């Protein structure tokens, strides 16, 4: 009897999984809302004749008036609130998606190498991860952003550096179990090089895990950014980010709750959407989880 | 149907098991009827997916949450399918017990083996902690667990597969049930100890006067232990006969296929079923004709159009096939 | 068992050493120093002060001095609050932080587990949806949004609880504890729910059902341990989350704990205080991770033998 060893075909299952995702109404609604917010943040400010840093001294602390030039009013410097929140969104969203991408790529490569190569290198690499895991996350991220001199890039680097660990661990486990699968052995026996195996088998088979956990990274990065900016360590005034807008809103809470609610609501909506999308992806890719 | 003088211990009438699925409904068991006499050992054979386990689960009230059982299962004068949960719990573990397919995962990994046994007695017979523990140790000893008294204090992961299945047997027979349902009790085990474990089970059951329904896809096991056999295919009964009759003179083409796939009867352990050409049908929707038709070598025109009726072909014999004649 | 604990303590000590070393050099290499912001002081005075704190010495000597101090459990005086030692500052803030952290852990685990179990037992019932909603809110709305909002509503508007501070006994605790535990309630209830649903599908739970011991006993004796193991494994990360959260909470509610000091100290380059708090948080986290491992080993006989 001959046994035909057929490698799983990830591409077709990927299509199936996305079809399953599209049937999830909450997740799809979240995708639409998120797209809308992203578009608004990046293109919305273009429709105003001023930027979020321009003070309109004739309109200080203007109230909400949807049909005026300042639809959501202004803050106590006369800066337009809506534009500031949208501009803050640009910063938060960019850092969020870019940060998740970079952290994800670093984690995937690190994990794939450790898991596929195995042996002593794996032990060493995972030892490092274990030590970094033992660090209190806040301390690490605060110290790193200080070391890199504060500012956007420093903040970005600090967040990425602290968030690549989880994808690394997950991908390593996946790569490890894949490396033992029959079709990988068959590929190796068939004369494929390690590079080919990694590119053609390991990576495509890790795709679903990476998508699921990558989608969880985005809200985490956004949360970290706004958290640090809230504490005064991240993005600094006059540049707006959701974190420092919320911080400013907290300070003015007893006089004007808008300053807190506007950026807070935006941040919460984005995090809601990202979490629903992540849930939807997990359900679509890993249906026995339910 | 089957006419015997004594009152049957168990009588299943028109049992069906259906699963609700996103795509619609799947029928895993379709109109199964059978009787079991006290002290009898009945084998249920069939390929993987033919619905063997679901019959037992339906009787035990253990169907998955998307499953529904229909029909009647009369056991000791009660219909198990319509019992309220509490009443069912007075039957399960007491007069009706079950051994599962996979001994490696069927014992609670967080509980001492002795406690898992004793629990049954404490709940059902109200024994004290000490008395239940003593009875548990004695039972472990009877299933030949070496050094049972200290072994009882151990956890399942410290036992080998064969030992775990013997623990399961001890647990199932502890309360001296009237009927034991054994779902492929040895398929997960090493071939060398399969026979040993089965013989032990049968021997203990004989001592306590317990009837057995033994689900298997190993005809060698059937020949060795069973008084009577029911052959299942696609959730339906294909044929039923006394074991010797079935092996000497099978009426149904499917049964004949199974027997032909078995190299030598006298071999102690024979290969599994499934060397009949074609793909086994598992719990499909309603097939209008004979479920075996796509794979049947003796198929005739009517087979795909009309469902073959169950015909009594002799004393305690029946078969569902268009080619089989009713006994006069 | 003892070997296991010793090994974990040893690993923890290594992690702590790595953390402390990294923190030390990161702090010193970061631009600016404890006194560089102070424009009123003349360069000579600054040089003088730096000499008393040994900041003029080469880095490796400072590190040696720090390690030597650490071995004697003496972290020296804070550079910002010059009359206080790091030990004093931590000792004065720790009770507040610990009280809040303790109650937050208690609330998060009890409420989280209860919600998760209720949801798993009655899937798609009212409790399940309620728990799911709390879960989504707790995960998606950050502490620093929900905290100030609750402050605005329950303290400023309704005056049910104080806005902040620590002057009203247990009433000062209510908002901080609720806000701090919310994200963990969310995680724990979700984790408990999936874990319980998975456990109820285990073969050994089916065996327990087959024994006819009753639904209650089946859940209590046969499903709970399997359900709780992953939840307990999460308590280590949960502690880390509570540490992170307490920094925010103490800032938002103006509480005199140590979390608030940390950000100040880092921004003002108060090297000794940063080192002290880092050490404390790192140590707490490691101890908690070891403790959860021990509890898991105690619950799960399969974990007891291999180190
Ligand atoms: N929860 C479920 N939902 C849908 N279909 C199910 C479910 N459980 C079982 N089935 C289906 O019921 C059919 C019969 O399964 P059953 O477990 O009785 O087979 P079996 O004869 O015991 O096979 P095996 O020898 O492999 O144990 C199978 O086709 C299976 O896919
Ligand atoms: S009824 Fe027809 S198809 Fe079915 S077993 Fe008999 S001969 Fe074969
Ligand atoms: Mg089965």
Automatic annotation (TrEMBL), chain A:
Parts of the chain that traverse the membrane: 26-48, 91-116, 128-147, 153-171, 259-278
Membrane topology designation: Multi-pass membrane protein
Presence of the UniProt keyword Nucleus in the record: no
Keywords: Cell inner membrane, Cell membrane, Membrane, Peptide transport, Protein transport, Transmembrane, Transmembrane helix, Transport
GO cellular component: plasma membrane
Record PANTHER family: OLIGOPEPTIDE TRANSPORT SYSTEM PERMEASE PROTEIN APPC, OLIGOPEPTIDE TRANSPORT SYSTEM PERMEASE PROTEIN OPPC
Protein's name according to its UniProt entry: Oligopeptide transport system permease protein OppC
Organism: Aliigemmobacter aestuarii
UniProt lineage: Bacteria, Pseudomonadati, Pseudomonadota, Alphaproteobacteria, Rhodobacterales
UniProtKB/TrEMBL annotation, chain C:
GO cellular component: plasma membrane
UniProt keywords, alphabetically: Cell membrane, Membrane, Transmembrane, Transmembrane helix, Transport
Database matches in Pfam families: BPD_transp_1 (PF00528), BPD_transp_1_N (PF19300)
Membrane spanning residue stretches: 100-121, 133-153, 173-191, 231-253, 273-295
Keyword field contains Coiled coil: no
Signal peptide positions (record): none
Matches recorded under SUPFAM superfamilies: MetI-like
Limits of the ABC transmembrane type-1 domain: 94-292
InterPro entries per UniProt: BPD_transp_1_N (IPR045621), MetI-like (IPR000515), MetI-like_sf (IPR035906)
Membrane topology (UniProt): Multi-pass membrane protein
Superkingdom assignment: Bacteria
Gene Ontology biological-process annotations: transmembrane transport
UniProt keyword annotation of Endoplasmic reticulum present: no
Similarity comment: Belongs to the binding-protein-dependent transport system permease family.
PANTHER family from the UniProt entry: DIPEPTIDE TRANSPORT SYSTEM PERMEASE PROTEIN DPPB-RELATED
The protein's name in its UniProt record: ABC transporter permease subunit
Species annotation: Aliigemmobacter aestuarii
């Amino acid at each position: 009897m001959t046994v035909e060893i057929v490698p799983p075909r990830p591409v077709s299952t990927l299509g199936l999984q996305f079809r399953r995702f599209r049937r999830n109404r909450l997740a799809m609604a979240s995708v639409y809302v998120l797209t809308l917010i992203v578009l608004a943040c990046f293109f919305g400010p273009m429709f105003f004749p001023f930027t979020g840093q321009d003070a309109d001294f004739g309109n200080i602390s203007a109230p909400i008036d949807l049909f005026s030039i300042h639809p959501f009013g202004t803050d106590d410097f006369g800066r337009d609130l809506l534009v500031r929140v949208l501009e803050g969104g640009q910063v938060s969203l960019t850092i969020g998606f870019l940060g998740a991408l970079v952290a994800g790529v670093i984690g995937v490569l690190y994990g794939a190498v450790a898991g596929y190569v195995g042996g002593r290198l794996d032990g060493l690499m995972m030892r490092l991860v274990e030590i970094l895991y033992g660090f209190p996350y806040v301390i690490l991220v605060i110290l790193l952003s200080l070391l890199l001199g504060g500012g956007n890039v420093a903040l970005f680097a600090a967040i990425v550096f602290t968030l690549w660990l989880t994808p690394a661990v997950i991908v390593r486990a996946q790569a490890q179990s894949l490396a033992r699968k029959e079709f990988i052995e068959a590929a190796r026996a068939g004369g494929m090089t390690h590079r080919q195996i990694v590119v053609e088998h390991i990576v495509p088979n890790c795709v679903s895990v990476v998508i699921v956990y990558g989608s969880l990274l985005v809200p985490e990065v956004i949360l970290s950014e706004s958290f640090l900016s809230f504490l005064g360590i991240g993005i600094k005034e006059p540049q707006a980010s959701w974190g420092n807008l919320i911080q400013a809103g907290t300070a003015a809470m007893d006089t004007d709750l808008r300053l807190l609610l506007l950026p807070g609501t935006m941040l919460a909506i984005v995090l809601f959407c990202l979490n629903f999308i992540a849930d939807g992806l997990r359900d679509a890719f890993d249906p026995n989880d339910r | 149907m089957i006419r015997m003088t004594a009152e049957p211990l168990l009588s299943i009438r028109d049992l069906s098991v259906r699963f609700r699925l996103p795509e619609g409904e799947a029928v895993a068991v379709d109109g199964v009827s059978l009787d079991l006499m006290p002290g009898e050992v009945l084998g249920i054979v069939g390929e993987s997916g033919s619905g063997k386990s679901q019959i037992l689960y339906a009787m035990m009230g253990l169907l998955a949450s998307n499953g529904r059982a229909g029909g009647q299962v009369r056991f000791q004068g009660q219909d198990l399918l319509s019992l309220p949960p509490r009443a069912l719990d007075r039957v399960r573990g007491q007069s009706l017990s079950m051994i599962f397919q996979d001994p490696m995962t069927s014992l609670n990994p967080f509980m001492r083996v002795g406690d898992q046994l004793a629990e049954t007695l404490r709940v059902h017979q109200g024994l004290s902690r000490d008395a239940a523990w003593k009875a548990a140790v004695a039972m472990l000893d009877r299933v030949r667990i070496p050094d049972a008294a200290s072994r009882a204090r151990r956890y399942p992961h410290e036992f080998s597969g064969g030992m775990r299945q013997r623990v399961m047997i001890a647990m199932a027979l502890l309360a001296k049930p009237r009927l034991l349902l054994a779902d492929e009790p040895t398929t997960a085990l090493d071939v060398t100890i399969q026979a040993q474990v089965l013989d032990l089970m049968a021997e203990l059951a004989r001592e306590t006067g317990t009837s057995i329904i033994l689900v298997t896809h190993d005809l060698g096991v059937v020949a060795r232990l069973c008084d009577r056999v029911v052959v299942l295919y696609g959730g339906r009964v294909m044929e039923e006969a006394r074991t010797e009759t079935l092996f000497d003179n099978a009426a149904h083409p499917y049964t004949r296929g199974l027997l032909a796939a078995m190299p030598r009867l006298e071999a102690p352990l024979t290969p599994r079923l499934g060397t009949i050409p074609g793909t086994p049908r598992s719990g499909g929707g309603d097939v209008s004709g004979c479920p075996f038709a796509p794979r049947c070598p003796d198929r005739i025109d009517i087979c795909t159009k009309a469902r073959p009726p169950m015909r009594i072909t002799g004393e305690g014999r029946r078969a569902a096939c268009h080619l089989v004649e009713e006994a006069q | 068992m003892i070997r296991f604990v010793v090994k974990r303590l040893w690993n923890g000590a290594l992690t702590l050493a790595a953390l402390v070393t990294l923190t030390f050099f990161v702090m010193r290499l970061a631009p600016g120093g404890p006194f560089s912001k102070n424009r009123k002081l003349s360069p000579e005075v600054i040089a003088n002060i730096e000499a008393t704190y040994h900041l003029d010495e080469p880095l490796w000597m400072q590190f040696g001095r720090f390690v030597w101090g650490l071995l004697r459990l003496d972290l020296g005086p804070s550079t910002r609050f010059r009359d206080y030692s790091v030990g004093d500052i931590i000792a004065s803030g720790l009770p507040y932080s610990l009280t809040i952290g303790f109650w937050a852990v208690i609330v998060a685990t009890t409420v989280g587990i209860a919600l998760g179990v209720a949801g798993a037992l009655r899937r798609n019932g009212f409790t399940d949806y309620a728990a799911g909603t709390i879960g989504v809110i707790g995960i998606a709305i950050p502490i620093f949004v929900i905290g100030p909002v609750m402050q605005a509503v329950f303290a400023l508007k309704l005056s049910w609880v104080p806005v902040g501070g620590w002057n009203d006994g247990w009433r000062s605790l209510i908002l901080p504890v609720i806000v701090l535990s919310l994200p963990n309630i969310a995680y724990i209830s979700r984790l408990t729910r999936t874990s319980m649903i998975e456990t109820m599908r285990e073969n050994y739970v089916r065996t327990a059902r087959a024994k006819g011991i009753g639904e209650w006993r089946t859940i209590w004796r046969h499903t709970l341990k399997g359900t709780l193991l992953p939840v307990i494994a999460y308590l280590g990360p949960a502690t880390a989350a509570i540490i992170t959260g307490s920094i925010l909470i103490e800032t938002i509610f103006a509480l005199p704990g140590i979390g608030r000091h940390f950000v100040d100290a880092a921004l003002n380059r108060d090297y000794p205080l940063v080192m002290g708090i880092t050490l404390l948080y790192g140590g707490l986290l490691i101890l908690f991770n070891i403790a959860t491992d021990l509890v898991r080993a105690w619950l799960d006989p399969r974990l007891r033998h291999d180190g």
